[in-house]
Amino acid sequence: MVQNVKKTQSITGSHVLLAVMSTILVACGGSSGTETGIGTGVGSEGFLIFDFDNDGIEDSADSDADGDGLEDSNSNDLFIDLDNDGRDDFSFNNLGEAYSGVTGAEGLASVTEFNVCGSVPGTDAFSSTSDWADNCFVERSINAGGIFADSLYAVGIQRILFCSGFGGTAGQSYDDFADGEYGPLSEAALRDFQASTPNALTDDGIVGRDTWAKLQDVLLNTATVQRFTMSISGGNSRDEYSFRSGPCAGIALFYQDIVADGDFEVVGGWRLAKNIPNEFEAVAFSIEPPFSGRLD
Prior knowledge:
The protein contains five helices and eight strands, in the order βββαααααβββββ. It is of the alpha+beta class. Strands 1, 4, 5, 6, 7 and 8 form a six-stranded antiparallel β-sheet that branches. It has a two-stranded antiparallel ribbon with strand order 2-3.
């Protein structure tokens, strides 16, 4: 589901990033396959720039064309599908084969192309829409080894909890707490968060549909969270979310893509900002593993 909003005439905020479009022009079909990003017409020849992650760099010249924070040649980048054929562009594995066993427990269903959340409810494994209601459930389980307990999803959950005053120890930084491992301390913090919300949720420590919605509500609360809009290529923009006060004051934590569509803007998916000092870069907010320096 996408959300359309009327375009405004001005760009607000203290950060304005102008991405420089690549001068490399490729004919249709000359990139990684069919056009999957935002194509920008160039001249009268009918050339297109293929830019899957909308960072202003043509895919064939972009070392991280899918924008997940890992170089596409890195063996830790398990799934790159710029041509939308359902298979990794390098290994030709489908999503299930690429992330086989990502749920980390015997007896749990594997992630597949058609079952993107494995054993748990949810249909959006990469936070590709504006609404988190369909994100995969996240759960710590001592016996099963956890359901997406080690993931970039967990990083986002931990950031909201820590920056809202739940969890953490004296002197601990947001990036120390938000390490992507949803363990006992993170679960305890989530239980406190669930019990504290208006119309309190069941404090079961599971990030399900209702808890996802409450976590997102924190980011959308303009009294405690500020949003800056940054300009990127093709008339598109990206909203940056940071807390106004507390241990994470002024730190970019999340990004949301805003895509130009005629007289409207399509409010789209969410990403995680990398840790300081690289917070103006982003990685997927997803079921993917958080390791191998992806946030640094």
